[in-house]
Amino acid sequence: MVAIVTPPDGARYEPGETIPLTIAAVASRNVIRVEIMLDEQIVATQPNPQPSLTFSTRIEYTPRARGRLQLRAVAVDATGVASEPYAITLVVGEAPPASLPPIETTPVTGPVGCTLTAAFVEDVSIPDGTVVAAGAVFTKTWRMRNTSGCDWGEGYTIAFFSDTPMHPTGSEPIRPTPSNGLVDISVPLTAPTQPGVYTTTWRLKDPSGQFFGNRVFAVIRVP
Hints:
mainly beta; Immunoglobulin-like; five-stranded mixed sheet; globular
C-alpha cells in the first residue's frame, strides 16, 4: 500500500516550481523503492536504503508543462511486485477560482529590484510522519537556501499558506540571510487535539507581504 501524504489532491503550482511529495508506503515483503509516474512514465524514484515493512520519504518533482497532471505513486516490494497506484491531480499554471487566494503567477520582485526565490534544502526537525501527542507544542525547523540575487534583510518572514493552522499568528520572522546563504527557519506549532494525519503548509514572505519561493510542510500524526 502507498499514499501521497502531501501535497493534497488539486494543489496548484507554477511550471518550474519544485514540488516536494511526501510518500508513505507499507509492504508485507518490505518496501525496496517508491516510484512516481506521469502518463505511464517513471519521472522520479526513491530507493529504501534499508528495506523495511514501512517507508516514508520525500521525492521532488518539477513540472514543466501547464495543465492538470495526474501523478501516481507505487511501492515496489522485495519480490518486485508493485502496489496498487495512488493518484493525485496537480493543477499547473492555471488561475485559481476567485474564491481561492491567488498563487504567484509572475516572478516576485524584492525591495531592491531583484527576483526573490528560495529553495527547500532539508527538514532539520520533525520529519514528515512524526507522531506528536494531541495538543502538544513542538518546533518544526526547515533549512532553506536564499537563491535570490539579493540578500534577505530585516522584515522577511515565514507565513502560514494553507492546510491546517497550528500557529496562533501564522507568521514568524526569519534572520537576515545573504544571497546563496543557508538559513534554518523554526516555527513553534501546536498539534490538533483529534487523532489523524495533519499537514500545515508555509511559505516565505517579503517585507511587502508577497509570498515567494518553495512551499514547505510539516506533516504529523496525532494518535
